[in-house]
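Hi team,

Filling in the usual template for the complex we talked about on Friday. All components are listed, including any nucleic acid strands or ligand strings, so the model treats them as one assembly.

SUBMITTER: L.P.
PURPOSE: interface mapping
COMPONENTS: two
RESIDUES: 1091
SEQUENCES:
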Amino acid sequence: MKKWLPLILTGAMAVWFLGTLRAPAVKDFDYGAFGRLPVVFNGRHQPMDSIARNSLLQIREKQSANLEPWKGDLEKPRIIPAIEWLVAVMTKPAVADEWPVFRIDNPELTALLKLPEKDKEKECDGKHYSWKQIEPSLDVMQEQSTRIGGREQRKESEAGQRTPFERAVMKLHDRLVLYMRLKNTLQPQDARDWSKELAEYESLLGPGVAAIQAQQAKEKYDEAVFKKFVGYAQKFDAMARLEPPLVVPPHAHDGAAHGDWTRVGEALIEAARGESLPGAVRHYAAMAGAFQRGDADDFNQQVAAYRASLAPGFATELTKSGREVFFNRMQAFYNAMVIYVLAGLLACASWFNRSDWLRRSAVWLIGLALIIHTTGLIFRMVLEGRPPVTNLYSSAIFIGWGACVLGLVLERFYKDGIGAVVSSSVGFLTLIVAHHLALIAEHGDTMEMMRAVLDTNFWLATHVVAVTTGYASTFVAGFLAIVYIVRGMFTKTLDEATGKGLSRMVYGIVCFATLFSFVGTVLGGIWADQSWGRFWGWDPKENGALIIVLWNALILHLRWGGMIRERGLINCAIVGNIVTSWSWFGVNMLGIGLHSYGFMDSAFKWLMGFVVSQLALIALGLLPDKCWASFRNRPPMPPAAPSRKEMKPGKRDKGRSKLAPA
Amino acid sequence: MNRLWKIFTSLRLTVVLLGLGIVLVWVGTVAQADEGLYQAQSRYFKHWYVWGLTLFGHKVPLPLPGGYTIGVLLLVNLVSAHIKRFQWSAKKFGIHLTHAGVILLLVGQLFTDVFSRETQLRFFEGQSKTWSESATDYELAFTTDAGGDAEEVVVIPQKLLMQAAEKGVELKDAKLPVGVRVKSWWKNSRSAFRAPMQANQPPLTTNGLARHFDFRQTGETKSMDSKNIPTALLELASPAGPLGTWIASGWAGDEVMVDWTVEGYEEEMGPQLAKAVRARLTEPQGFEAGGKRWALTLRPARTYNPYSLTLLKPTHSVYVGTVTSATPEGIPKDFRSRVRIENPQTRENREVEIYMNSPLRYAGLTFFQLQMDASERTRQRGRTPSSTLQVVRNPAWLTPYAGCGIVGAGLVIQFMIHLVGFVSRRKTK
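RESULT (copied from the run log):
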């Protein structure tokens, strides 16, 4: 039985994962088909589904909408997928405005906006509020955001100096703006019967333009037509000014698109200038009408009709949209994270129980998680047409992936559960980091476009991949060292052989890390030389990478010189964790230089927490043998640091390479 | 001597230097937030020692060896250790290769630091230029008509002007009919238009530029995205007698600063006044001496090339739909300049394309795409599109490429030796 357990467990998890891949069944409205419609937002082609998820992630910090947040999980609150929420916001805002999706955590802000407190009877959880609830206080919001924004525009203060209250204000401000954008994507937000209004506007095009021309020429004109037409034009202009997603594709002739995507508001104004009204505007109006009437069949037909009209000229966009929706649904990184946790627990347990089936189960599960992780990584690369790392978010995913592979390789050699624990814990932690980076990503989009200088796959594939591999391996060395200290200090499981094996692993990984961080850092310099003629500019991110190289080189020299031995090496490797986290995140928080991605105040305390925890571990590592559960009953270690004479190459040295750890 | 040799060849010195290097790089990075990149760079990295550190806004009175000291000592340590311990063995080949690469990198960087020169070339669509300009240094140029198309130019570099200001000496040259006394040299200054009908202070002098603009001294800037604009108060004298006091300022002689000033006035006071400001600022100011009319300007120091570059077409493309209120210029997708090179010496006349990550390497110089002012917005505002190239002369530019390759190869070889040994050991077990 135990022989088969690992396989059974992994099979069960695989089935669970594959189950999440199935598209949800269409009950009435085919939200899935709407979600696959291509649009342009944030500078890139993406499906409606991505807009829905990313927007909800920004507004509610979740990818789904809980419409009854005051209910406990067991009371089965009504939770709808992001795309369902988006369709309502875009086509039936009167309903969506009542849904409590705006997350507000700051009590000062809740008080300022006079929002109700947590009260289950009154159906409020004290954290999520609807547009309708916030609307009466929009003036107050405006006043606050203008004050803060104005101050920063006049350079009297910086975004990094905002108080928690001000941060909450600006966050909510951005969320409200985004919501207004979405409401004005397909139709003006106050449209009652958009199809009818659209028809009226079209019929007014001729007489309306004539009336305006007559009015400007100071001739007689039809005042009623003039007023109505100008009213429409102002409304559409306001729509376009909000800068909603670009849903109107360019005209397609002979299977190729000419021009750029535009917004509905812009297309409507262009129509007054004599352009023909694009079909997309009408199609979307028909979808909105059907959804408002609750006519699912008509809605589904309209979506299908619009898709069919796109098919000739926009085959690539349609395919890409479909793929991205699948990628969204797969949630590869989240699901991999769940499996890593399970695997990590099993591997830890195997140290105490010493039973091999636990360890093997862990390894199998990590294998499965790694397959899912890799699938996600490759899928993302294909969607973006880019190497794996394009931003901070994807660097977290790649570092986790690299660390996982390294850990599995170690496990393959040593078969002692240590590689498995490191694999799963670094995999889990980096994916958690990625998850939170996605929350603070600009526009909630983790696949944003690359700015001009970064728009080069060659350097992204070489420099960035090498540097992040360097990060990943330094972390693996550091986590191996943590395993050493935790097991040695608190358990009796770190026997001499395990300790030696661990330090040998750390040493090997440090060598590996030196290679990659060095090559990566210098390649970065060469890229800089290629793009602006400066090999080294002392930019914070460059310096961070340099510190990793220097630190790894320092460890190696210390080891070769016999200045540190097993325990010293372990402590140094943990310092590597601090150094790497500094380079990865710390330098971005300085808010200076070419690589600064904006001030991440929320991340700062986590970074500090991590650094403190590592320092604590080093402090533990420095305690004498008698404090270590594993060492208490062991004969004392031979005296540290061999004399320098031993270091000299010579006959005595012949037996072992100078580089080989003792 | 023997002891010194022992110290210089010791591994302990390597470790200490690497440790100090880490501390220095970290401190120098954190200090950038307070001191600015430029100053932090020169104070911590391009210096022999550092006295007084800035950490997170706090001054810490501690000394540190500077980047030069650490770099040179590491180099000495590396080279001498290799002289002492070098022995040929296949097992150590990777180590030797790695260290040789590191030596090459260090030497190359030192060389770059001493010999590389950076200038900038900004040109408008259709404009041809045979020179590039310094981003930091200025020069005082005296220009006169030499008949035909030719111009005679006499140039005094900034360094000489500053020395003259300090020592109070008169600068003279056989080619120049006047002597120049620098009454004051302001490293950084501000300018303001003396609008008519306003209560103005009396002007600095009653000649040329000073009639229409006020200048005053201001603190030196250290940050990366602003620069020092010098102004000089000059006393000119010809053998025939004094020619009065004149103002020469970067605000008038630097094209970029003129544009920037005019734009500011346009936003605040409207196009009419802006036009007047531009006319006054660029109006040649001059004097008669030795039977010729001379003009004087304080302009960015120029480096001339024996060939010309013409900007045929600047392209500034952005991602669709990203021109929004938050990013009025859009998210840049591509900057590229189509340029014609005309070299009478080689009879070359060809077009090239310079864009991000793809510079032009020509006649010992490298031209990089630096800035671009050619967006939709630029054209809508009625401005002529322009492009700025970074021009770099760096004879050591190949050393990092070679160094990286050598160190990478060395590490891989050493790593493989270990790995193979490790795996075969485990197999035999």
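MY TAKE: Chain B touches chain A through 68 residues (CB under 8 Å). Chain B has eleven helices and 18 strands.

Thanks, L.
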